[in-house]
UniProtKB/TrEMBL annotation:
InterPro entries: ATP-NAD_kinase_N, DGK, Diacylglycerol_kin_accessory, Diacylglycerol_kinase_cat_dom, NAD/diacylglycerol_kinase_sf. It is found in: Membrane. This is Diacylglycerol kinase. The keyword Transferase applies. Keywords: ATP-binding, Kinase, Membrane, Metal-binding, Nucleotide-binding, Transferase, Zinc, Zinc-finger. GO terms for cellular component: membrane. GO terms for molecular function: ATP binding; ATP-dependent diacylglycerol kinase activity; zinc ion binding. Gene3D superfamilies: 2.60.200.40, Probable inorganic polyphosphate/atp-NAD kinase, domain 1.
């Protein structure tokens, strides 16, 4: 049982509790997805395997009933980070309504997406590819790793975006005393968007790349059906960002961490708020712990704020020849930014409040603590 002093649960081979799998066969390489499906059915039993996307939309009500019926100790999620986030929404909701026991449904990840940064952080690797030699034997090794993994609590975060704008109220007419035309103006109109964050949030050139890829994927879905192709497209859009990205305006951008103003480094072109240890498919921002900040952990109630100077800087960090700029660490992050800068959350663009003339207030605070498996260090 999880306690504050012992934040883990050893999953032993002799444990007879149920392990189930939720699979997104649309993630990753087609041959790998079909192989994973067959192996899960073989080792766990067909009755313990559920297909999250029987059509274009996820079967959320059916997934809830499936989990309620099994009340599993471990849920293996085969898919990308977006699929994992969806399952965490489901399991947290079921535990919150007592439809699952408080210490059940620990999520383990079989990474089949493009970036898979949560899977990397939890020690399950950067992307599953069907091996050419002895694939069945090697898949069994993955299941053995899950059996020997430990359960931990992981933070999830609430991201609130608020835009204020002065709008004209549609009220015109004549003044009752003078007969002159008059117009009434409304007070500030507040637009609020709330999201749940699992991995990271960012503003700047990297979010522009995410937005461009998202638009391209929506227009050409068949050209984004493989992990290798997706990485190629990200590279193409990254080349464009080398020429088009601009530094943040210092007088307009404001960063507040735990109610203290923090200076954004001059020349910053992207500001990232991260909960996981890697970004952009494996870039490690905080591997050097010889500084005033605590070692990052997904369950420490803290977020890391990092600055990047451009595409070449990110590429250098990705290759291990440059270091990201550590800006701050805290549990309450607030950013005031012009709305014309692109934003992204967990690898998906945030376009709901996009507008070239407004300011957006971003507030990130702790939302909940969920249950996941990790084999890092085990």
């Amino acid at each position: 049982m999880l306690t504050d002093n012992q934040n883990c649960l050893e999953m032993k081979r002799s444990d007879k509790r149920v392990t189930v799998a939720l699979i997104n066969t649309r993630s990753g390489e087609r041959t790998a997805a079909e192989f994973v499906r067959r192996q899960m059915e073989t080792h766990l039993g067909e009755e313990n395997v559920f297909y999250l996307f029987p059509s274009d939309k996820p079967a959320i009500p059916e997934a809830k009933k499936f989990l309620e019926r099994h009340n599993p100790a471990v849920v293996i999620v085969a898919g990308g980070d977006g699929t994992v986030s969806l399952v965490l929404d489901i399991t947290d909701g079921l535990r919150g309504t007592n439809m699952l026991s408080a210490t059940s449904a620990y999520v383990a990840v079989l990474p089949m997406g493009t970036g898979n940064d949560l899977s990397r952080t939890l020690g399950f690797g950067g992307g599953y590819v069907k091996p050419l030699l002895n694939p069945e034997k090697k898949f069994k090794r993955f299941l053995d790793r899950v059996a020997h993994a430990k359960g931990i609590k992981m933070d999830r975060w609430s991201v609130q975006l608020q835009k204020k704008s002065t709008l004209t109220v549609a009220s015109t007419g004549e003044d009752a005393h003078t007969g002159a035309s008059s117009r009434t103006y409304g007070v500030d109109d507040v637009h609020v968007v709330e999201k749940t964050m699992m991995n990271y949030f960012s503003i700047g050139f990297d979010a522009t790349i995410v937005r461009q890829f998202g638009d391209f994927r929506n227009d050409h879905p068949t050209m984004c059906s493989r992990r290798s192709l997706n990485k190629l497209w990200y590279g193409c859009f990254g080349c464009g960002a080398m020429c088009n990205s601009v530094a943040f305006p210092r007088k307009q951008m404001k960063l507040t961490v735990d109610d203290k103003c923090v200076a954004i480094p001059p020349g910053t072109k992207a500001l990232l708020v991260t909960n996981v240890k890697t970004y952009a498919g494996g870039a490690v921002f905080w591997k050097d712990n010889r500084c005033r900040f605590a070692k990052p952990d997904v369950g420490d109630g803290l977020l890391e704020v990092t600055a990047l100077y451009g595409v070449w800087h990110l590429a250098g960090v990705r290759m291990g020849i440059r270091k990201a700029i550590k800006v701050a660490q805290g549990n309450c992050i607030r950013i005031e930014t012009p709305a014309y800068f692109a934003m992204q959350l967990d690898g998906e663009p945030l376009d709901e409040l996009a507008c070239s003339e407004e300011m957006i207030d971003v507030s990130i605070t702790l939302f909940s603590r969920t249950l996941v498996m990790t084999c890092e260090g085990s």
